[in-house]
Design brief:
Elements lengths: L21 E6 L7 H15 L3 E6 L26 H9 L3 E7 L7 H8 L5 H6 L3 E7 L9 H10 L1
Parallel strand pairs: 1-2, 1-3, 3-4
Bound molecules: flavin mononucleotide.
The site of flavin mononucleotide has 16 residues, from helix 1.
Length: 159
């Protein structure tokens, strides 16, 4: 295991001598073979070629329910809902970088991705403390210069 930087979990080196990362890609389009997942595929290919280890989680096909806002977790305990989020939480805590992949829906992310992000609430502190790297991949229909303004702003605030 190489020396860890910034709490990284990664072991080994990339093609250019950097630290190899564990990267978790969270896809969220109902179109399995759609545009956002195509963009993600290209990202994954590049990341793997560079020597990173990539895992994909498909939020659009997972069993993840919206946060109930019950606060029984106190932002740091187990969630009272028993679904696929527990497994995703484990994966997130083992990763160095999160990549959010979404189609643009009314200037924001898909409901599938928003549902996952809302469920971060039950481990918000642990997640913030990890200082994860993050990236966003979005597919949209139009190409006006402000198309991505709102989703970019939200994601920058989250990161
Ligand atoms: C509910 C809904 C809302 C959408 N809102 C926008 C939008 O605000 N701006 C835009 O450019 N495209 C919008 N689109 C188009 C999608 O973002 C676009 O088709 C995208 O490429 C779909 O990605 P996917 O193939 O990964 O699902 C919307 C599509 C749907 C179904």
């Amino acid at each position: 295991m190489k020396e860890k930087r910034d709490g990284q979990q990664a072991a080994g080196l990339t093609a250019n001598g950097g630290l190899s990362m564990n990267i978790l890609v969270i896809e969220s389009s109902p179109h399995k073979k759609g545009s956002s997942n195509l963009l993600a595929e290209n990202f994954i290919q590049g990341a793997e070629e560079a020597g990173h280890k990539v895992t994909v989680f498909d939020a659009a096909r997972a069993n993840i329910h919206p946060c109930l806002g019950c606060d029984s977790c106190g932002m740091s305990g187990p969630c009272c809902q028993k679904d696929d989020m527990a497994g995703l939480r484990e994966q997130i805590m083992q990763t160095d970088m999160l990549v959010f992949v979404t189609p643009l829906y009314y200037f924001g992310m898909s409901a599938q991705l928003k549902t996952v992000i809302d469920r971060f609430y039950s481990f918000n502190g642990a997640l913030t403390g990890k200082n994860l790297k993050a990236a966003l991949i979005v597919a949209a229909w139009d190409n006006r210069d402000w198309t991505m303004k709102d989703i970019k702003h939200i994601t920058e605030e989250l990161a």
